[in-house]
């Protein structure tokens, strides 16, 4: 299986630069895995495809202002830092740019010394371990100095930073939003619950594992970086009950999917657990946890398009993507959605 198998041509103007005014008015492509049939709806129609007793699984991670701009203490060279994973108290795995300027022992200052970091370890691909020093509360300092880390294909300014958060974002620590969840509003979630659909939450802090480009020609050679996840006893019990009752587990996004599949692969049942996952899902993978998937339209050659291709088949996904391009759907983080049933 080669990386070119997951490539497609996307007109640049279909890359969504800004979110819609109303989250739930995004378009929704329905893809039936069994029949291959495609239907065109709006996201608020998702309620028609959810049944009483089903469980909808949402990732409640909250994006932090993870992009920092600083200078080297000795040379005053400009350094950009993207926080990826909190490893231990004030030690973070980060991406540095330009990475060649950040060696072990390098000290970077941010905001005229309000925040300072020392490089502890150096890895490939620009990754570093930095230890931060500051007075006060780290997340409050980040709010002052950091920027929301929008993907590089979004060049427009984001007027309201809350639009790059889900309405149920709660647990701070993510470097990117779980974008399939951006379409939900509080009122839509309320209507879904009133229909008798369960809602369960888990946490996966999106890091390099999700959006790192695949550089290997052979897909199987790609190595995912690990990301932190957490599943509560309450969520695990609800998922086991859903499965026992013969109802569906519907994952919202690839991050929720990877977390659920990690748990099922590890235990063979849903259990409360936390840790790091580097699960890589591509065609040939046998799904153990989910029955349906709500997702956005993903980048060509990405691990995300490989995951949805594993769930619905590469041929069906490519057919659906071509249909979405023909119908002028909006793509990527602020774009439209797909429900694969």
What does this structure look like?
This protein is α/β, with parallel strands linked by helices. It folds into 2 domains: 3-63 and 160-340, QueA-like, CATH 3.40.1780; 67-145, Beta Barrel (Thrombin, subunit H). Helix content is 21%, strand content 28%. The protein has 7 helices and 17 strands. The chain has helices at residues 138-145, 186-194, 208-211, 233-244, 253-267, 303-312, 314-326, and strands at 27-31, 38-42, 55-59, 61-63, 67-72, 78-88, 91-97, 107-110, 115-122, 127-134, 171-174, 198-204, 227-231, 249-252, 273-277, 292-296, 337-340. The strands form 3 sheets. The protein has a 9-stranded mixed sheet. The chain has a 6-stranded antiparallel beta barrel with strand order 5-6-7-10-9-8. The chain has a two-stranded parallel ribbon with strand order 4-11. Strand 9 (115-122) and strand 10 form a beta hairpin. The longest helix has 15 residues, at 253-267. The two termini are 25 Å apart. The mean pLDDT is 95.
Helices and strands in order:
Blueprint: E1 27-31, E2 38-42, E3 55-59, E4 61-63, E5 67-72, E6 78-88, E7 91-97, E8 107-110, E9 115-122, E10 127-134, H1 138-145, E11 171-174, H2 186-194, E12 198-204, H3 208-211, E13 227-231, H4 233-244, E14 249-252, H5 253-267, E15 273-277, E16 292-296, H6 303-312, H7 314-326, E17 337-340
Parallel strand pairs: 1-17, 3-12, 3-14, 4-11, 14-16
Antiparallel strand pairs: 1-2, 5-6, 5-8, 6-7, 7-10, 8-9, 9-10, 12-13, 13-15, 16-17
């Amino acid at each position: 299986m080669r990386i070119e198998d997951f490539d497609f041509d996307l007109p640049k103007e279909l890359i969504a630069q800004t979110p819609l005014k109303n989250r739930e008015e995004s378009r929704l492509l329905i893809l039936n895995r069994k029949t291959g049939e495609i239907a065109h709806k709006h996201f608020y129609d998702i309620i028609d495809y959810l049944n009483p007793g089903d469980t909808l699984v949402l990732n409640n991670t909250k994006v932090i202002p993870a992009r920092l701009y600083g200078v080297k203490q000795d040379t005053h060279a400009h350094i950009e830092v993207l926080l990826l994973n909190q490893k231990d108290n004030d030690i973070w795995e980060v991406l540095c740019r330009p990475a060649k300027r950040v060696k072990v022992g390098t000290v970077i200052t941010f905001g005229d010394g309000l925040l300072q970091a020392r490089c502890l370890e150096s890895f490939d691909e620009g990754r570093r371990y930095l230890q931060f020093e500051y007075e006060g509360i780290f997340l409050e300092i980040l709010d002052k100095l950091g920027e929301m880390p929008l993907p590089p294909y979004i060049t427009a300014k984001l007027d309201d930073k809350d639009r790059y958060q889900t309405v149920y974002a709660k647990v701070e620590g993510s470097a990117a939003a779980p974008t399939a969840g951006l379409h939900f509003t509080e009122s839509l979630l309320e209507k879904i619950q009133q229909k008798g659909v369960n809602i369960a939450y888990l946490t996966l802090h999106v890091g390099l594992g999700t959006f790192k480009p695949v550089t290997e020609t052979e897909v199987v050679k790609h190595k995912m970086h690990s990301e932190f996840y957490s599943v509560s006893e309450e969520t695990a019990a609800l998922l086991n009950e859903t499965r026992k009752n013969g109802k569906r587990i519907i994952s919202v996004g690839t991050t929720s999917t990877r977390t659920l599949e990690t748990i099922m692969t590890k235990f063979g049942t849903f259990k409360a657990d936390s840790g790091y996952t580097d699960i890589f899902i591509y065609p040939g993978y046998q799904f153990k946890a989910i029955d349906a998937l709500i997702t956005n339209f993903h980048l060509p050659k990405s691990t995300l398009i490989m995951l949805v291709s594993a769930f619905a088949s590469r041929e069906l996904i490519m057919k659906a993507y071509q249909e979405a391009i023909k119908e002028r759907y909006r793509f990527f983080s602020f774009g439209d959605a797909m429900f694969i049933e």
